Structures are given as C-alpha cells and as structure tokens.
C-alpha cells in the first residue's frame, strides 16, 4: 500500500486525539456501567491506533482484551455486587436483629 507519510501521520494524530478523549471520558465517568462502555470505546480506539502504527498483533490483543473481556468483567462484577442484599449476613455478622 503506497500511502503518503503525511496521510498516515494525520491518521495517527486523529487516533491519538480519539484515545485522549476516550481516556478522559473514562476517567470522568462515575457510573460503573457507563464506564465499562466508555472503556470498551477506549479499547477500540487504542486498537485502531495500534493498527495505524503497524502493530496488528497488539491491535488484535487490545481488541479482544480491552474492548471485550475487561468491560464484560466489570459489568459482571457490578451485577454481582448490586444483587447482594444490603442487610444480609456475612463475615462478622450474625443472624440476630440489629439493635435500635
């Protein structure tokens, strides 16, 4: 592929801007569910950047781990934590009624 170096540099610059924007959005997002979606977008942007700098093996790894597995693990963890009852018994608790 005979792409002009200036065009490749422009694409890399655009990809870097996308990565910075997605990383900033991920850092500023408070809700874990929304944050996992933003992390997925960040993973895709990073994979695109790696592809543009001609690292296709790293791009594939980033695509699999950064945009699929990690957000999925975050979502499953949030689901598990939100399902747990607030007043349930656990370590350090017994089955008595709480004192008032």
Fraction of residues in H or I helices: over 70%
Proportion of residues in β-strands: under 5%
Mean pLDDT: 86
- The whole-angstrom Rg is 21 Å
- Could you state the oligomeric state of the chains shown? single chain
Largest sheet: none
Question: How far apart are the first and last residues' alpha carbons, in Å?
Answer: 75 Å
List unreliable stretches of 5+ residues.
none
The helix-strand sequence is: HHH
How many helical elements? 3
Shape: elongated
What is the number of beta strands?
A: 0
Q: What structural class is derived from the secondary structure elements?
A: mainly alpha
Description:
By secondary structure, this protein is mostly helical. 73% of the residues lie in helices and 0% in strands. The chain is built from 3 helices and no strands. Helix 2 (32-52) packs antiparallel against helix 3. The longest helix has 28 residues, at 56-83. The chain starts with a helix and ends in a 17-residue tail after the last helix.
How are the secondary structure elements laid out?
Blueprint: H1 5-28, H2 32-52, H3 56-83
Descriptive terms for the model:
mainly alpha, 100 residues
